[in-house]
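Fold this complex.
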Amino acid sequence: MTREESAGVELPIEAVRPVRPGRWLGAAVALLFLVWLAYTVIVNENLHWDVIVAYLADGRILGGLWVTIQLTVLSMAIGLALGVLAAVMQLSDNPVLRGTSALYTWFFRGTPLLVQLIFWFNIGLVFPTFAIGVPFGGPKLIEWQANAVITPFTAALLGLAINEGAYMAEIVRAGIRSVDPGQREAAESLGMSHRQVLRRVVLPQAMRVIIPPTGNQFISMLKTTSMVSVIAGAELLTVAQRIYLGNFEVIAMLVVASIWYVVLTTIASIGQHFIEKRFERGHVRLSSRVRRNLSPLPSKEPLPSKEPLSSKELP
Amino acid sequence: MNAQDQPMVRIRSVRKRFGSLEVLKGIDLDVPAGEVVCVVGPSGSGKSTLLRCVNRLETIDSGRIWVNGELMGYAERGGRLHALRPHELSRQRRGIGMVFQRFHLFPHRTAIENVMEGPVTVLGTSAAQARRQAQELLDRVGLADRGHHYPAQLSGGQQQRVAIARSLAMRPSLMLFDEPTSALDPELVQEVLAVMRDLAATGMTMMVVTHEMNFAREAGDQLVFMDDGVIVERGNPREVLAAPRHERLRAFLGQVR
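Structure:
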């Protein structure tokens, strides 16, 4: 007999694990380091923990926190919309649309965000007024002074959103390209329009590829908003800086700001996890397929009826 | 020619090239309404391309294709051809079902949602009515209890049967099958062929690109053998398969049997 049949005897595996002394030593060193780090931070009098605690829920800090959240959510939302638009243009057959999109991503990924922010804040130097009317020097219907429209907040939003759109365009494009071309063909064969194919078939599947890097962009954006402090954007870091310029608690205020940044990014990471799960629909790992026994043998299922269908019943 | 004896598909002098490679070198073919035409041939013979030209997943370089009396892809006005707008092309495609070798079910939707997708999105059918109709169709292909499964949870044969139901939900007058069983494990082929036989028995007009000679013999009204971009031999499948006239077909049959 080449293969032994088990005669109904249970053979439990209760193997002894091998000893890993190197791993134990490494863990001990790491633990010691962490304890030492915590100790030095806690007993260090220069950190002024009482000040940190006192300012953590300070009204100005919370105001700055709110501006940071607004800037992040708004610029990500606008950036995502710009990114989808640029990505769809990039995948178009029309060379002018493709070129426009390429120019946009090329320029805004090619210049530093810091420069863009300062530029938007000072755009009044280039365009003193904004107007709605006939372009190329035609009559104007409404006109605004640049200095009135461009506040630190709008300049920050412009800079962050337009810059973000250039990065999102690449992410969305990669997502759309990741969808099997057969999906598009199947949808077109059903008679769907281009827009329906994109909305109902391509984008929902592209989301699975788009979401993880977008989550990273969002988390990154929470921290990137701190760059707005160069144009006094009134967000978290700007507010912290204003406070320490008054009370000279530089490190304490930076710790306060850091604590809030960590809280925000932690919440965002948890949200990202749940959104990713939502878009995993239909993507079942093989292991869970087998566990749930959802791939039954063909013999167990009813074969289609052998009698011909009447043409009346069939659509 | 009156409407009654007008063929469902009329293909005239169709040529198609991919770059420097000419894959269709002047194809003429009629598919009468209610008939099943099986297209066979070695890989690279152009048979799949021909099928994809019929519902215009591929454009043709010259020639004409009519489906149900309608010229595919163009409108003739003032003695000139005008390429159809996308929405007009979509309307033409609605009446033509297509089943792919690799199923191409929408992976983010359950089986029943896949079948509902066309009627709801394209025809504007209410979700409730589309669901009832989709359930009936799943029942027809023997998958009444699999509606809530995602494609990844179904076997290849089951996925292909869902794909057939998805096409039928658009109430097509013509069904195209592009090697519908070639991606299946051997034991799953029969369940798909059974569904196709039932469909043929209802009087559905079908163009089937396949390697299943038994299906062609039993369910086919016409067999077309293509090689190197041309139709080499055609006729009644039982006669053609019993006594192939061309050496190329004999060689091909020797390989697939």
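The mean pLDDT of chain A is 86.
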